[in-house]
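Bench notes, afternoon.
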Amino acid sequence: MRESVIFQEIDSAAEERGLRKGEINMVLKLLNHRLGFLEPSLKAQIETLSLSDVEELGTALFDFSDVADLVAWLQAIAD
């Protein structure tokens, strides 16, 4: 069963979802530490990002000085 293509695809998808969820949690913790309280709507936006966008946000957040920087970053990737 471990060798089946379908199992490997399911396993790979589950692994990516877990990785994405973990990275989102870490980014949210870093943002809370750096910027303070985040509105639930901002958290919800972040939780819908792709894994690659979450990784980019994880790097970009070190340049943020306030919530407006986060909002601008989220708007820029949405365009």
